[in-house]
Structures are given as C-alpha cells and as structure tokens.
Amino acid sequence: MIGRVKELEILSNACEQNESKLIAVYGRRRIGKTYLINHMFSEHKKDCLFFRFTGSYMLEGSVQLDNFVEAIYDWFKCEPSYDITNWMSGFNLLKKAITTTQTQNQKVVIFLDEIPWIDKKNSSGFLGALGYFWNEFALNHKNIVFILCGSNSSWIKNKIFEDSYGPLYQRLDIKIHLKPFDLKETKEYLLHEKNFQIDDKTIAETYMVFGGVAKYLSLLNSSKTISENIDELIFNIDGHLNKEYREVLKSLFDSKASYYSSIIKILSAKQSGLTQTEIASGLGEKSGSKIKDAVAELSEAGFIIGLSKLGSKINAKYIISDPFVLFYNKWLSGFSKNELISLQKPYFNSVMNSQKYAIWSGFAFEILCLVNIDLYLQTRMTKGLAKSYGYWSFVGNDEDYGTQIDFIVEYENSVYDIVECKFYNKEFVITKDYKENILHKVEMFKKYGLKGKYDIKLVMLSSYGCEKNTHYNALNITSNITLNEIMK
C-alpha cells in the first residue's frame, strides 16, 4: 500500500475505538479509494463484520434500492419479510441483518461506495434514511464504522460536509481526502511494484502522462517501454484509457460534462493560466455564478488548481493540475476515431523526439513541479516555513517591459524562492539571454512586487541540474535541485 500508510492507520484506529465512527473517503476517480478500504478490511481487519454496497452510475433510484437489498442478502443471507419500497425500509433491513449476524463485541464496518450515484438529486429519500440510521441506530450501537466513499468530491462536500439542513451535518468524525501518488511514491510504485528499470527522468515523463493515479499506473506493462505503453493504452482506439477522459467527466459531472470539458480545453491551451473572467471570455460568456460553480467543481475534482498572484487576494489564475487531463487535451482531443485508427504506429514513440513534444514537456514539467510542492519544500528543508506559493506578473509600462514569474514560494520573514523549472535530457546550460531574462524578472519583482524588507532566493529545478558556467555563477543561484533529489 504505497503512499497510503497514514490512511490505513486512521482506519485502523477508528476500529479500535469504543464508539461508532462516521468516515468520509473522497478523491479523484481511479485514485484507489475502493482498493484502500477493501485492502484494509480483507488484510488487516478480517475479524470485522463487513458490508459493502456500491452505487451504480445512471441507474434509477428504485433500481439502486433493489441492488441495496440484494447486497444485504449477498453479505448476510438476510431476506426481507415484506416488500422494501423505500430507503427507510432498506436501512431497517440492514439493521436487522447486523443485529442477527454480529457476534458479541464484533466491530461492524458498513462501506457505501460511490455514494453520490445512489441518489444524485436526493429525490428518493436516501440521505434522510441514511441520517436516521446513523443517528438512531449506529451511534447508539457504539460499535460501527460507517464509511461513505465517492469520486464526486463536490457532491460529498455540498451534501455531507456543508449542508446545514442535511441529516449528517457536523456528524462526520473523520474526513480522508485520498490524493494521487506524488512523484516519489510514483517512483516507488513503478520500480518496486511494477518492476520497471527506468531512470528518474523517464519516471517524470510517465508522471506527466498518467499522473499519480493508481489505476492508470497499474495498467503499465514493464516488459514494454513507457512510450509503447502510452501508445497501447491511450492512442489505441481499443486501449483501456482511450475513452477514459470522457468517461471520467461524464461520470462526475453528468449533463455538465461538455461545458466543463470546454473550460478544460481553454485552460489546456494557456500555460500561464486564466482568471475566472478570462475563462468566461474564452467561452463567450460573462463571468458569474455559472463559471464560479464550474471552477469550484473542477477544483474539487482535482482537475485544476488556482494560483494566487503574490500580494493579491484577487486575480487567481487557474491551471490544469491533473497530468492525464492535460496530456489528453494536448495530444488526443484533436483526433477523430478514424484518424486514431489510421495513425502510424508506434505514434507516440515518434513524437517524443519532436519540437512539439519538447515544448509540451517543458510546460508539463512545470505542472509536475507545482503539484509536487511538498516534495520541493522537503528538498529545500523549508516545509514548515512556507506561507504560500503562486505566481507574480507585471504587465509593463513606459519605463519597464513586463514579465511573469510562474512559480514563486513565500516564506516567513519576507523570504521568497523564485523557482525556474527546466526539463532537459542533460544538464541545463544557462545562456547570456536566459541570464538577462532572469535578472529582469528579479529586478521587476523587487521594484513592483515587494514592499519593505525582502530576501530573494533563486532556485533551479531541472532534470539533471545546471552546468556551472559564468552565467550560472552570475545569477547567485541558491539551490540547484535535480529530479533525483526530489524523488529521494
């Protein structure tokens, strides 16, 4: 269970308590939520009385209820003595199954998976019945671990966490936000679980395609190269991940999937990110609640993140933070079905030596660095000191031309890291022009971005480090970080 030690410990501790616990586990689709919980109670807590029911996408509420009753029979061999026509009766049947099956002092684990799919519009009374079951039976029973799980983080937040009129408001004991593997955990998984023999740069390239999504990484075949895996899984019309992007959006956002896909497409084309107003403009709309809600849902799903402009509480720019989403929109979204079928194979292997790939990989590497900010801070040994991270820009005036810093970290005591991310096949060579550009960024930041005291540190973060030449020395670089250091 790479990268999930903390979560296993939380679940294990919940089972040791002499009281019932209500737990929410949420996070991006395919991230391994179901696997985590099944692993926990099949390998570590086998003595628990375990029940699992999974909501089904696109099924009517009455069918979901029938499936719930069937699941109770499958797990407990308990049949109803009367027709189950509503969720209150369904949970009463579950209560009967538990009380007649449970041995003395046995811990009961109830796992409701993909809960947002069970009653998406809360039109069949599922949440009310669930709340009554928890408040009137499970809490008093004092020996139940109730786990609510789902990929639609926005639904869970709105219906469970924040709905002050809902039956479970402020009832949750534990929230587990399961996130993708970071770059270091991805390396451990690829080398030790999948048995790849690849270097750190190849691991980074793998991450820039699949992210740290456990399911996607599990599909990789170590007998093939990474590019062969990409061709087979993504660019093959019958590949496991060829339709994954559309299926993920449809399952999470339903009728809004097409609209949200349009927002993602606009953001994918803009490396420096866009504000909500700029996103609306790109869609030909006015900024308002529709865009605001869409951005919030995409953020909750882990597809985008907002980066604040340093020193400003407004003008947050949104960028694609999910590598797979970014990859799909760059390399796959433009192909029709017939074009994919007719692509010369292997396609991606030939692309990897192109200028187009070099430009994209530089962009994708910056995203990789931003979403692995914790690893960066650990490498810098500054994690406890960081206040925020984001971007800074200056549009220019009659006196000075504009510039933008894409990655800047602010620490306590007015210390700032300006981070330059470079993805190369060898040591990055700082040229005179590059040096002058960096010096201009620093000067404009000092002149227009800061007030009072400051201590600016220039950090290079690259595949294999920077060559030490006169231009490197002239920049007074504080730290020259390599991928290997980030992934140690």
Description:
With 488 residues, the protein is an alpha/beta fold. The protein has four domains: 5-177, Rossmann fold (3-Layer(aba) Sandwich), CATH 3.40.50.300; 183-225, no CATH class; 244-369, Arc Repressor Mutant, subunit A, CATH 1.10.10.10; 372-486, Trna Endonuclease, Chain: A, domain 1 (3-Layer(aba) Sandwich). The chain is built from 23 helices and twelve strands. The strands form three sheets. Strands 2-3-4-1-5 form a five-stranded parallel sheet, sandwiched between helices. A five-stranded mixed sheet has the order 8-9-10-11-12, sandwiched between helices. The model has no long low-confidence stretch (mean pLDDT 93).
Entry keywords:
Arc Repressor Mutant, subunit A; five-stranded mixed β-sheet; 23 helices; alpha/beta; Rossmann fold; 488 residues; five-stranded parallel β-sheet
Q: What's the arrangement of secondary structure elements?
A:
Layout (H helix, E strand, L loop, with lengths): L4 H12 L4 E6 L6 H12 L4 E6 L6 H16 L10 H15 L6 E6 L1 H4 L7 H16 L2 E7 L2 H9 L12 E4 L5 H11 L6 H11 L3 H5 L7 H10 L8 H10 L3 H12 L7 H7 L6 H12 L3 E4 L9 E4 L2 H9 L5 H6 L4 H5 L3 H17 L1 H8 L5 E11 L4 E11 L3 E8 L9 H18 L5 E8 L7 H5 L4 E4 H4 L2
Parallel strand pairs: 1-4, 1-5, 2-3, 3-4, 10-11, 11-12
Antiparallel strand pairs: 6-7, 8-9, 9-10
Helix pairs in contact: 1-2, 3-4, 4-6, 8-9, 9-16, 9-19, 12-13, 16-19
